[in-house]
Amino acid sequence: MAAPVMTQFLAVFACLLISIFCEKYKPIEIELQSEINGEPARIFTAEEIRKYDGSDPKKPIYMGVRGVVFDVSDGKGFYGKGSEYNALVGKDATRAVAIWSLEPDDLVPDVNDLPDFKLKMLDETFQETYMRKYPVVGYMDYLVEQKEFEKIANSKEKTISMEKKNDRNSDKTENKLQEESLQGDTQNDNLDAIKKTSDEVFKNIPQTLLAQHEEL
Ligand code: HEM
């Protein structure tokens, strides 16, 4: 009697472990603010943010982490010219922060290939160090584009799933096959629309949002 109970217990325990270790880490959602401390949020291209790398003592020092741009001037001892972590500023070096590296190849925003535990550590540093210590001044253009794309994709996805639901509820007629092929066309049209609209958004962002930028 004890043996099956033990087996059941082990099975439940194994499932628990699997669910803990296999669950994909979901990075903290970043919400973009159009205004920060009463000022319009600034949008930075890689070229723009490079001007704030600590080499000009009259300018603040900016650093991008997860696409959010922080004014890290108060950490001049870490980030100023000739300081230990100067390589991290004037750019979005999210990858370097995530994996604790100062190698030139790692001074980039891309973290897509990193394991979950690194992404989790990155989020901890993002919140505990950067959000807590330094003021946000704006966002990297890539984050704004990504958010716009997600917004469009989500709204289109909703439309597609509504259409699917309506189709399922409607009476199946003899020309069902023909209907399904039409439905396929509609979905393709929707996907085309997502691509087209997001292309337009990408094209418009630099003109509409970069216009807010004023050099200090
Ligand atoms: C053996 C190597 C390292 C040691 C002993 C070390 C040590 C430290 C110490 C003592 C601090 C200061 C904590 C504080 O006063 O708040 C710090 C902060 C920091 N370190 Fe390191 N570090 C090392 C390597 C690295 C590397 C490779 C990176 C690359 C990304 C890095 C990135 C940072 C960052 C971003 C901060 C936070 C600065 C801030 O508060 O703005 N460290 N480190």
From TrEMBL:
InterPro entries: Cyt_B5-like_heme/steroid-bd (IPR001199), Cyt_B5-like_heme/steroid_sf (IPR036400), MAPR/NEUFC/NENF-like (IPR050577)
Basic and acidic residues composition bias: residue spans: 160-179
Compositionally biased region (Polar residues): 180-190
GO cellular component terms, semicolon-separated: endoplasmic reticulum; membrane
Subcellular location: Endoplasmic reticulum
Keyword Iron set for record: yes
Domain Cytochrome b5 heme-binding: 44-141
Location of region: Disordered: 160-195
UniProt signal peptide: 1-22
GO molecular function: metal ion binding
Keywords: Endoplasmic reticulum, Heme, Iron, Metal-binding, Signal
Transmembrane parts of this sequence: none
Record-stated family: Belongs to the cytochrome b5 family. MAPR subfamily.
Protein name: Cytochrome b5 heme-binding domain-containing protein
Organism: Potamilus streckersoni
